[in-house]
Amino acid sequence: MPENMSRIIPKKEIANMKIAGIIAEYNPFHGGHAYQIEQTRKAGASHIVAVMSGNYVQRGEPAFLEKHARAEMALHGGADLVLELPVPWSCARAQDFARAGVSLLHAMGCVELLSFGSECGSTALLCETAQALESPEMRDCLRGCLDEGMSLPAAREKAAAQCLGKEAAALLQGANDALAFEYLRALKSLHSPIRPLAVLRKGARHDETGCAEGFPSAAQIRSRILQDNPQGKKSLPSFSFEILRREITAGRAPVSYSAMETAILSHLRRLSPADLALLPDISEGLEYRLYEGIRSACSLGSLFSCVKTKRYTHARIRRLTLHAFLGVTQGDTALSPPYLHVLGFNDRGQEVLRRMRDTAKKPVLMRASGLRTLSPAAPTIYRLNACATDLFALAMPQKQPCGMEQTKNVVRLSSTG
């Protein structure tokens, strides 16, 4: 840490700090994200910490632009400290994504609130329903639906309708509410004192690309930008657009998954069913279906289409494919992130970092040199993340050399308020 972080915070200042955490992708940071931060401050938060996906996101693709640029957007948009959710968990299924994100906030030891977007906007309703979803009756019903060959999301929704009623099933239809249940489950499993805070989502739903009133979704914004639609600029806060324009001018954005296609297919063709069986979220012999799909597919699109079934969703296949390419295994995602990796902070974020000197249950990593003092698992995860970043650099419009993980500096901004 910088030397000036060693200042002791007065007790009065500590007492007045109320730190809230947000788990996000910011791909890219848009008005809806700024609105959530604003509402979280209105709920009493004095400091906002974002646990943000690194260079790969949960839909099983590289992020639209590099993680430090997205962290910079978040700091301009109201976040005070940005920590990275490393690659094994950033592109994992919702359960692992949420568990890892919550574990990082819990490990800070000073976070009081977990703020998340919600289609229903009711913290009480989500907590009540989350408890009901864990009932023995619900588990039995879910098992029966899975035995019918349904995917887990579809089975859970059907089981909720049968056991808990239409209102509970409707909550599972919203991507944000469904993820909220995973956050609540993670908080419970960790016996965390962090309290949940649902913020009503306004505008397009997650990954929705059609028109909607209110804030457009990140998917809608990415589509507009790729199509050179003037609405793309209008969809972003001015600071986000300027950072994006800078990255585009430098040849670092937008990052294209299609640019990685041949490399991914080439790597996949080297894998055996035994190799694929080591991937996260593999079960029921799916490795053999995936192997056969790899042998016949000449594009990622055809691979996803031929492996997908009612049981195995498109998103699940995309994540499996990306994990296989990046070398992520079940053993990686079964762990929790071994350190708190700082991507950026402002003056208030620096206050949080000072507070964490006394409260953090995991080491804070500012630069690669700090790995020498960490647990044996930490270098393993860091190397995996660094390798994934080197591959990410090949998907930029202007390909970058290896080493971005080691050479990119922590983003440092001054607070404006």
Brief overview:
With 417 residues, this protein is α/β, with parallel strands linked by helices. It contains 22 helices and 10 strands. Helix 3 (67-76) packs antiparallel against helix 13, helix 5 (94-108) crosses helix 10 and helix 8 (152-163) packs antiparallel against helix 9.
Describe the structure.
By secondary structure, this protein is of the alpha/beta class. Helices cover 51% and strands 11% of the residues. The protein has 22 helices and ten strands. The protein has helices spanning 11-16, 31-42, 67-76, 87-90, 94-108, 123-133, 136-147, 152-163, 166-173, 175-189, 218-226, 231-234, 238-249, 261-268, 273-276, 286-296, 300-307, 314-326, 330-334, 347-359, 377-392, 404-407; strands at residues 19-24, 47-53, 56-57, 61-62, 81-85, 111-118, 195-200, 340-345, 364-365, 411-412. Strands 1, 2, 5, 6, 7, 8, 9 and 10 form an eight-stranded mixed sheet that branches. A two-stranded antiparallel sheet has the order 3-4. Helix 6 (123-133) crosses helix 10 (175-189), helix 8 (152-163) runs antiparallel to helix 9 (166-173) and helix 14 crosses helix 18 (314-326). The longest helix is centred in the last third of the chain and has 16 residues, at 377-392. The radius of gyration is 21 Å and the shape is globular. It starts with 10 loop residues before the first helix and ends in a 5-residue tail after the last strand. Residues 1-8 have low confidence and may be disordered.
